[in-house]
Structures are given as C-alpha cells and as structure tokens.
Amino acid sequence: MSGLAARKHQPLQVAVCGTGSWGTAFASLLADNGAMVRMWGKFADEVAEIRQHHRSIRYLPDLELPETVSATTDPFEALEGADIAVLAMPAQTLRANLLEWGSGLSGSVVVTSLIKGIELGTTKRMSEVITEAGGVPPERVCVISGPNLATEIARREKAATVVASGWPETAEKVAEACATPYFRPYTSADVIGCEVGGSVKNVIALAVGMAEGMGMGTNSKAAIMTRGLAEMQALGAALGADPDTVNGLAGVGDLVTTCMSPLSRNQSFGRKLGTGRSVQEVVADTQQTAEGVKSCGPIMELARHHGVTMPIVELVVSVVQDGRAPADIRSELLTDGHTWTT
Questions:
Q1: Per-residue pLDDT for 7 more than 60?
Q2: Which of 23, 278, 258 is closest to 153 using CA atoms?
Q3: For residues 309 and 246, is the Cβ–Cβ distance under 8 A?
Q4: How far apart are CA 164 and CA 192, in angstroms?
C-alpha cells in the first residue's frame, strides 16, 4: 500500500500556484492520486471557471477537474496547511510572486517547481529563485521536468517525468504525490541537469519551429535538434549537471517532444515567426507563455559567463531580441561557422 493510500483519512494537501494549462493538468493528476488540491490563480475569471464549472475553459476546456480540486484568488488561502506547494507560473513572474506571498511557504511545505526557464537579469534557475526570493531552504525545494505536454496529460495519456531534489526524501515525497497509472515519475538528485534541460530545450524548439515555418525539411530540423542537444550538454557540463540527466527524460526526451509536437508552445511560436510574422504579432495572439522567448537571453548570458559556445541559442536571440528575420538566419542554422561533432 502506498503512503498516500495509508493516509486515506488524512489526504495530502497540495497548493498549485498557477491556473495555466500545465498547472491545471498537474492539479488534476494530483487529485487523481488522492490529494486535496487548492489552486491559486491571479485572474478572477479563471478561478471562477474552476470553482463553478470545474474546468479551465480558456486552457483545457475538455478536462473536467475532480471534485477535490478547488480554487482561490488568495495565495495565502491556497497555501494554508499545504504539504506540497507546486509553482506553475511564468518564469519571469516567479520572483515577484514569491516576494508578495512567499511568507506562506513556511513550516515543512515542500516547494515544487514546474517552471522551465532562466530568470532575466540574474541568470538564476528557478530553484535558486525559490530559495532566494521565497526564503525556502534547499532541502525543501524540488523541480519537475520532462516530456510533459499538458494537453496529453489532461487526456490522461501515459507520460513520464523526472522529480529532482538534492534531498532524496523530498523528491520521493513529490514523486509519490504525482504518481498515477498514466504518469510515472523518476526521482533524481540532479536539479541543475533538470533545469538546464527544461530551459534550453525551449530555445531549441523556437529554432526548430522557425525552420518548419520557413519550409525546411525533417533532415534539417533533426540536425538543428542534434546541435541543440550538444549545446544543452555543454552548458549542463559547465554548470555541474550529470550527463545522464541531459541524455535522459529531462533532456533528450523533453527536447524531442517540445521540438516536434504542434502542441508545444515554443515550437508553435517559432513556426509563426518562420512564416514571417514579427515577435510582437506572435505575442499578441499567443494565450500562453512560450518560455524560450524570454529565457533565450539569460541562457546566452549564462553560457558566455561559463565560456560555452551555443550558436543555435545565439541565433534565436538574434531573432527574438535583436530583430533579425528568420529568413536571414536560415543558412546559419546549419552552417554557423563552428565545427560540429557527434
């Protein structure tokens, strides 16, 4: 019998901070595993949908949330008595949120990040922001990363992920909470590898999406992905990641999924850029955050600081931040002047 089953009369209390697609899908699978879930959302209309209709009509209209999922606009209400707090907001808003209500992350609550990005200005990973801005000790911090498209998980299609913490008991607690017949978590001690993989793959997916939007073939996209993996591996090594992490679910697995699926926000964003639309135009009609757009700059800054060459990431930065047209970088995506190795 699992630990959660043994606690039948005292179900796990989980706060999910963020009512976007991934936060909502994750809240559903937690509830499927017996947890009582309270979601916090910034926008009253999204919270009202969940409370009144048990649905996120904007993000996952086909997902009927279990009755054990509730929602509130009060973060302290969501966090009160929580055993686990799951953070599922955009990377660039995490610090501001934690400075506002991070005092609610007290006691023994385990703080778990679903966020795949690097912070602008500081080049910090999300676990570092949680520790710094939220005042949460590292032994209570956990990250989740893997090939986890929210729409598929909301349909309860089988998937796997990596739950990472430097403290095994922390990773195991979170893994047990989210393990369902359709969602299999693997524990790891490599927080750095998971966060590097989850962040860099979004930027590579922007490049692959641009290639697709420009009509480039499967061979070209596979080559960009392979080069992107090499860049991910190089940055991970420089930061102290375990190579096995980058070569596993949280690296290669997530890279393949994000680069190739039309459900991927970053791939879709890049594809629209590749058809000739401007960054501003794509942002205007994109409902959800494509983390690679904001994280590509900090990733490049981090790479330069550590002497790591990342030509694909650099090209994405030149489009997203410097205004180059994807058509101008088309040839450079595969002939960047650097020697490629396998």
A1: no
A2: 23
A3: no
A4: 9
**Residue 140 to residues 132, 155, 169, 268: CA-CA distances in angstroms?**
13, 30, 9, 35
pLDDT of 183 higher than 50: yes
- What are the residue numbers of the active site? 201
> How much is the pLDDT for 299?
98
Same domain, residue pair 214 and 94: no
Kindly report whether the global pTM for this prediction surpasses the value 0.90.
yes
For residue 334, give the amino acid letter. Answer: L
Q: Indicate if 149 and 95 belong to the same structural domain.
A: yes
Spatial distance between the Cα atoms of 239 and 310, rounded to a whole number of angstroms: 14
Residues 158 and 201 in one domain: no
Name which of 83, 69, 77 is nearest 101 in CA terms.
77
Give me the pLDDT at residue 285, please.
84
Of 27-36, 40-49, 70-79, 279-288, least confident by mean pLDDT is: 279-288
Nearest-10 Cα torsion for 182, 258, 64, 111? 80
Where does a domain end: 189, 211, 237?
189
From residue 104, alpha-carbon distances to 97, 173, 320 in Å are 11, 20, 36
Query: Which class for 122: exposed (0-12), middle (13-18), buried (19 or more C-beta within 10 A)?
Result: middle
DSSP 8-class letter at 83? S
> Contact 249/200 with Cβ under 8 angstroms?
no
Residues 77 and 156 grouped into a single domain: yes
340 is a domain residue: no
Per the DSSP assignment, residues forming a β-bridge with 257 are: none
pLDDT digits (tens, 9 = 90+) for 205-244: 999 999 999 999 999 999 999 999 999 999 999 999 999 9
What gap in Å lies between CA 335 and CA 332, rounded to an integer?
A: 5
- How many domains are there within the chain? 2
Domain extent, residue 224, equals 192-333
**Two tokens, residue 274:** 């590749």
Q: Tell me if 252 sits within 8 A of 232, measured CB to CB.
A: no
